């Protein structure tokens, strides 16, 4: 079983719609959680950290469920510029800061 | 300010050759990471430096892979006797202690 699992998609969503991604992780000792965004042939960039209490940044909302070991990302009022691959990322549980990535979920926003 | 830079951006080599990939981290960042990303996959951890020392090299796939960071800044990933399966994008990231990891644009390695 992979440490971090995501539905690879693709998700093709009309502009203005709401889209949600889920991700599960296997190691219950994992400490930190993130969503990274990766555009085609570019490097990953941090979109947002994910906290137990849930957090929001504009149109983006991230939530963490430690009991079920899943992480979610919600994008409201999607824009064409949201088209990218969204990577679910978990910090290694032994605290040496290395990141474990999911395979990514590819999102395309359709005009 | 300057981000993480990596050179070369593309490298094509023949099976069996030796390659070196360079990473210049963000100035002042003490932590440096190497990841490898194959097509359709997320990045996979290779090695992590804190200062000059490799704090964790558990992700290096075998002894053909080696990395150094002699002065605690620039790092070089070295691959000996390259194989076709080594073809991937090699990503470098740096961070301040326990901070956000910032990635460079990567080196796309193709082994023919």
Tell me about this structure.
The complex is a heterodimer of chains A (111) and B (112). Chain A is mainly β and 111 residues long. In chain A, 0% of the residues lie in helices and 53% in strands. Chain A has no helices and eleven strands. Chain A has strands at residues 4-6, 11-14, 19-25, 33-38, 44-50, 55-57, 60-65, 70-75, 84-91, 99-101, 105-110. The relative contact order of chain A is 0.34. The mean pLDDT of chain A is 92. Chain B has 112 residues and is mainly beta. Chain B is built from no helices and eleven strands. In chain B, the strands form two sheets. In chain B, strands 2, 4, 5, 6, 9, 10 and 11 form a seven-stranded mixed β-sheet that branches. The relative contact order of chain B is 0.33. The chains are: A mainly beta (111), B mainly beta (112).
Task: Give the key terms.
heterodimer, A: 111 residues, 5-stranded antiparallel sheet, B: 112 residues, mainly beta, 7-stranded mixed sheet
Beta-strand content estimate of chain B = over 45%
Q: Can you summarize the main beta sheet of chain A?
A: 6 strands, mixed
Oligomeric organization of the protein chains: heterodimer
Mean pLDDT level of chain A: 92
- Reading the helices and strands of chain B in chain order gives EEEEEEEEEEE
Structural class of chain B: mainly beta
Q: H/E element string of chain A?
A: EEEEEEEEEEE
How far apart are the first and last residues' alpha carbons of chain A, in Å?
37 Å
Helix content class of chain B: under 10%
Rounded to an integer in angstroms, the radius of gyration calculated over CA atoms of chain A is: 13 Å
- As a whole number of angstroms, the C-alpha radius of gyration of chain B is 13 Å
Number of strands of chain A: 11
- The percent of residues in helical segments of chain A reads under 10%
Head-to-tail CA distance between termini of chain B: 37 Å
């Amino acid at each position: 079983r992979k440490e971090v699992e995501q539905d690879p998609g693709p998700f093709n969503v009309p502009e203005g719609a709401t889209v949600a991604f889920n991700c599960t992780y296997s190691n219950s000792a994992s400490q930190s959680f993130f969503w990274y965004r990766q555009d085609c042939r570019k490097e990953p960039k941090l979109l947002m950290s994910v906290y137990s209490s849930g957090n929001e940044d504009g149109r983006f909302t991230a939530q963490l469920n430690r009991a079920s070991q899943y992480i979610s990302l919600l994008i409201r009022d999607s824009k064409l510029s949201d088209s990218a691959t969204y990577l679910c990322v978990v910090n290694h549980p032994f605290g040496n800061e290395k990141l474990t990535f999911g395979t990514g979920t590819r999102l395309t926003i359709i005009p | 300010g300057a981000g993480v830079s990596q050179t070369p951006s593309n490298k094509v080599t023949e099976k069996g050759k030796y390659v070196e990939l360079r990473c210049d981290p963000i100035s002042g960042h003490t932590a440096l990471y190497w990841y490898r990303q194959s097509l359709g996959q997320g990045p996979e951890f290779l090695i992590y430096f804190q200062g000059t020392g490799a704090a964790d090299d558990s992700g290096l796939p075998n002894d053909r892979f080696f990395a150094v960071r002699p002065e605690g800044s620039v790092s070089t990933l070295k691959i000996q006797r390259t194989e076709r399966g080594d073809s991937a994008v090699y990503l470098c990231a740096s961070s301040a202690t326990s901070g956000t990891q910032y990635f460079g644009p990567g080196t796309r390695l193709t082994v023919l």
